Amino acid sequence: MNTQPNTAAARTLAAQPLAIITGASSGIGAATARALSDLGHPLLLLARRVERTEALGLPNALARSVDVTDAKEVAAAVREAEELYGHADLIVNNAGVMLLGEVAHQDAAEWERMFDVNVRGLLHGVRAVLPGMIERGSGTIVNVSSVAGRRTYANHTVYSGSKFAVHGMSESLREEVSGHGVRVITIAPGAVETELLSHTTDEAVKADYQAFKDSIEVLVPEDVAAAITFAYQQPQRVTLRELVLAATAQAA
């Protein structure tokens, strides 16, 4: 993929406005990138593993290696993409880590990592695009959370706390910006077949969760990407404030 497109050509080729996706190298992020590309959107794909986003081979896409916990890196990548493709109309804050474990034994560094990525990283994405959206009176912010941001599960204490924070921030942000024509949407998936579980370092907890996933037919990333694109494609005057989706066989 050409990560240095010609500015004039990029603006001419883009049939739709710029969409930004964090955590775009795999799973829900990669599936969403493909879905939005199919709809004609130029893309800014942010992930630490830039070779994975480049390997998606999507047209009109700028891939950048960015750590979402670094506000300056996020803002610089957004500026670069907007110079190429015009203003960002959508950001999908998808980057996240899930480090399951018992609070009594879990390394506190894992707690910090989850809040850094899942909360602060999300806010950095919001801040990079929101002033422009407010100025234009239009735009959509999609925050990818989890059903664990709506209910609790054993061994999810800190992860769940970070996702409850996403829900709370999203609701409050929506109230702040609704009068400016900006939409805020929370997507809360249940168990999804992604790499997310691989982040967990507690092997016993990981095995238990994997056994649960193996016992039912969980969501695939394309299911979540379809929900994101459905919500985004609604008229700008319509906000689907929250979509909670899970495998039919997932009881809780």
In terms of topology, how is this protein built?
Elements: H1 7-13, E1 18-22, H2 27-38, E2 43-47, H3 50-55, E3 61-65, H4 71-85, E4 88-93, H5 108-136, E5 139-144, H6 157-177, E6 182-189, H7 203-215, H8 221-232, E7 242-245
Parallel strand pairs: 1-2, 1-4, 2-3, 4-5, 5-6, 6-7
Please supply descriptive tags for the structure shown above.
252 residues; alpha/beta; Rossmann fold; seven-stranded parallel β-sheet; 8 helices; 46% helix; globular; SDR_fam; oxidoreductase
Description:
The chain has 252 residues and is an alpha/beta fold. The protein has helices at residues 7-13, 27-38, 50-55, 71-85, 108-136, 157-177, 203-215, 221-232, and strands at residues 18-22, 43-47, 61-65, 88-93, 139-144, 182-189, 242-245. It has a seven-stranded parallel β-sheet, with helices on both faces. Strand 4, helix 5 (108-136) and strand 5 (139-144) form a beta-alpha-beta unit. Helix 2 packs across helix 8.
Quick overview:
This protein is α/β, with parallel strands linked by helices and 252 residues long. The protein is 46% helix and 15% strand. The protein has a single domain (7-245), classed as Rossmann fold (3-Layer(aba) Sandwich).
